Amino acid sequence: MTGKTSPTWTPPEAPHVYPLRLYGDPILRRKAKPLTLTDTFTVPGVGPQNVRQVAQTMLETMFEARGVGLAAPQIGLPVRMFVAVEYEDDEEENEGGDTPLRSRVLRDFVMINPVISVINKKKDRSYQEGCLSIPGIYEEGVPRARAIAVKYSDLDGNSHILEAEDYLARVFQHELDHLDGVLFLDRLPAEVTEDYRKELLALQQKSKVLLSDLAQADRLRRERGNG
């Protein structure tokens, strides 16, 4: 969730960050499937990685993009996992220019197979919301439950139930939406999406170019016998 820059993608042989899937990519509309800790994934454009490697690179991608959350479909994996972070000044994560975000982290999260239950059904519309897959577009008025509980597993297979409210609750709800193929613009009136028609069409074109580049990288990797 949210972010004003896109990370630079390093070569697939040793990825520091993943390329982010953009608006218009079909994977952003797919319902993700549960995963297990023993799974190995073929990350598009990168190659085989285990769950822990994927989670760590997702966190690095999120930090470099100056975001607060990132879901697996946003890196091309249709599985039920997301990463998120709570900063000391959560509403201002994009401020400060080049200040390393890690220096302002209170705690970060890797949530595997998360399930959300609502604690406070009253809707909050006060925060501005954005998405790393829809860069440059920010809107207030996205209705989110004020307080939730998230049941999830961590990278060691331990189960947790975490309660969150206000902004952090919004972050978790935003990321869970990604696992169900829902984007934050879907929760706003249709005219909002229409207002950004030009920008969204441009993102769709960028998405097509990225998908072509990833397919080419995968072909080259297979030709080299790297999986």
TrEMBL record:
It holds the Pfam family Pep_deformylase. Binds 1 Fe(2+) ion. The active site is at 175. The lineage of its organism: Bacteria, Thermotogati, Deinococcota, Deinococci, Deinococcales. Removes the formyl group from the N-terminal Met of newly synthesized proteins. Requires at least a dipeptide for an efficient rate of reaction. N-terminal L-methionine is a prerequisite for activity but the enzyme has broad specificity at other positions. Gene3D superfamilies: Peptide deformylase. It catalyses: N-terminal N-formyl-L-methionyl-[peptide] + H2O = N-terminal L-methionyl-[peptide] + formate. HAMAP family: Pep_deformylase. Keywords: Hydrolase, Iron, Metal-binding, Protein biosynthesis. This is Peptide deformylase. CDD domains: Pep_deformylase.
